[in-house]
Amino acid sequence: MKIEAVDFWYLRMPVVEDIGDGSQDALLVRVSGGGQEGWGECEAAPVTSIAAAYAPMSHEACKPVLDGVIGATLDDPDDILRLSRRQRRICMDHLQAPHTWSGIEIALWDLLGKARSAPVWSLLGHRKVFPKRAYASVLFGASPQDTLQNARQAVAAGFTAAKFGWGPFGTAGVEADRDHLLAAREGLGPEAMLLVDAGQIFDRDVEAAAERMAALEDVRAGWFEEPFGGECHKQYAALKARFPNVPIAGGEAAHSVEMAEHAMEFGRVDFIQIDTGRIGGIGPASAVAEMARQGGIQFVNHTFTSHLALSASLQPFAGYEAFDLCEYPANPKQLARDISASLQCDADGLISASEKPGLGVDVDLAKLKKYLQQVEISVNGKILYSTPPI
Amino acid sequence: MKIEAVDFWYLRMPVVEDIGDGSQDALLVRVSGGGQEGWGECEAAPVTSIAAAYAPMSHEACKPVLDGVIGATLDDPDDILRLSRRQRRICMDHLQAPHTWSGIEIALWDLLGKARSAPVWSLLGHRKVFPKRAYASVLFGASPQDTLQNARQAVAAGFTAAKFGWGPFGTAGVEADRDHLLAAREGLGPEAMLLVDAGQIFDRDVEAAAERMAALEDVRAGWFEEPFGGECHKQYAALKARFPNVPIAGGEAAHSVEMAEHAMEFGRVDFIQIDTGRIGGIGPASAVAEMARQGGIQFVNHTFTSHLALSASLQPFAGYEAFDLCEYPANPKQLARDISASLQCDADGLISASEKPGLGVDVDLAKLKKYLQQVEISVNGKILYSTPPI
Predict the structure, then answer these.
(1) Does position A330 have pLDDT exceeding 90, yes or no?
(2) For strand B161-165 and strand B350-351, is the pairing parallel, antiparallel, or unpaired?
(3) Contact between A51 and B20 using a beta-carbon 8 Å cutoff
(4) Domain A123-351 has what CATH class?
(5) Under CATH, to which class is B5-119+363-386 assigned?
(6) What is the ipTM of this complex?
């Protein structure tokens, strides 16, 4: 088929709070061709990502992300890989491009899967899917008591693993952090897996992270995630060398295969967390999953938005039995719930990629009207982008 | 003083060609405060960078780049470093942000320098400036004969070093590349320094780059620049290990101190090329210059736009005697020439940072009216950005 159209919709909650909750807005992408539609989602900063899709060319290696997409052939996974290679070249100096491309690329896989009546994971070469243990991804509470409640809620909802992140962690002192960690462990009970996400709060400060490691060991943290900036591989490796018993997770900021590769090789993370909505989509994420397998590192998704994004992020590692954890946004905003039907966990708290064609997730635009943001970008009176009607 | 206003202007040549010439458009930034004005320039994709400045918040770590800038205090270099640290935190998931911030940060240094009647390099702690050998940065010609002419022009203009890049290099076979390299050497004569810029054309393909190394040795290339993608540190190191006699240059794509650090440490480049318009401005570039000194690596600017950008890119290494090369856009488009007066080389082809306050470069907006692009970005009818009148 030929790719006939690419459309973007910026959706937003009526109130966006200044908290580490990525489900408060969304940039949906629809790719149309051959009488079908494919859907994808870009992570964060919708207006900037839309601008990158349509911005006028600066030079040979700084073109709009959409350049050359409409009219291109899409019959085969190789067509997507070819378009991705081209995009990397023409947007070399267009920094936002990988985030914009991610949503388009995901939609291309969804479209191809629907055209072929095949789930995306099968197009990636996986023969079957393996269930993953869904961990509830929630924020630390404002107080340890709130964190305790959040933990109890996760257990009550059937999760056997939960991750606590952001909120006050790292900002109110070592003892305050210990109190939150103890509360989380208490709320989860002794059996559930407890994961901790520092949200890059220590940036480049290895000592500040090191001060939290005793408490993390005490609560038997399954991992300590993103203590440092996304590219601070040397700091990650330094912390690992000092505290070999606490697994380290990172990589969600990766906007290229290389950045993820470096987090594994130079940063020595134990878990590589990939967001398909940032790294350039499902193809690059799949390449990282295979690198992780070869390196004996655990691949896991990063997802803090909708179940469309969750389905996309499951595809690259759906067929790896050893990669048995999955980040599951447990308390997303209503917007994220309304984008698509949810992927349900089974009674054991396990989740699997859908067997349906494409991503196996339907998007009902009509339901999203109330969240729609009307965006217009023009240059010299010529409209480059205007939100398409729903 | 308080920062009172930040303004952006997108300027563009009437025709932007599909060539590797970064001087075809510009995003100028003016920061006003205390009755003075500071100027900066962001590298590439002006509409995307403007969008990043004003895009609505997605969450705690994905805010508009301008958040918290207007009204902030600017009395001291530490104020700029503090604003940069804050920007890094609030724009963690806003990929374009470092490019946008670069122009603002440069303008902050210019403003502070003017307020203090001191050149920026002195605010960075340098006691004096050392002259740099300006190398003419030009594109390969369409044919070897054109490349020969380009080389002769550079010599005739007084340059003792020249760099050839982009154009057909890497796309038409090993022999064609050799012909261009021989033509460049012939045109420059035996004495001048010949530098070669592959413009990332081989991306991840070490073998393809390796095939060019014999010709590069034959023409005594002073360096081979960016054979691979900006983050392909392992490929850089692999090529270096196989061909230790050809110096390798890279780093212009760095949008963080870490990325530059990795190019040096993991990529083993001999020359680290930093664009202050991408890495987050003059502060991060200065940090890289000091790392380079400690690592015995040569720091050099990357500049392919205006002399405002050139002046900004000179500041971080102005005071290092050992860093004695400077990229000099030899044939920029008229737009780039009109943005500011040129920094002139002396009779020996040497260039030095200005002794005047700030960046020492005046921008005459009135002269730029004909290049002005009228941009408007709105969400739900509310205008986030509209090009300010000149």
Answers:
(1) no
(2) unpaired
(3) no
(4) alpha beta
(5) alpha beta
(6) 0.97
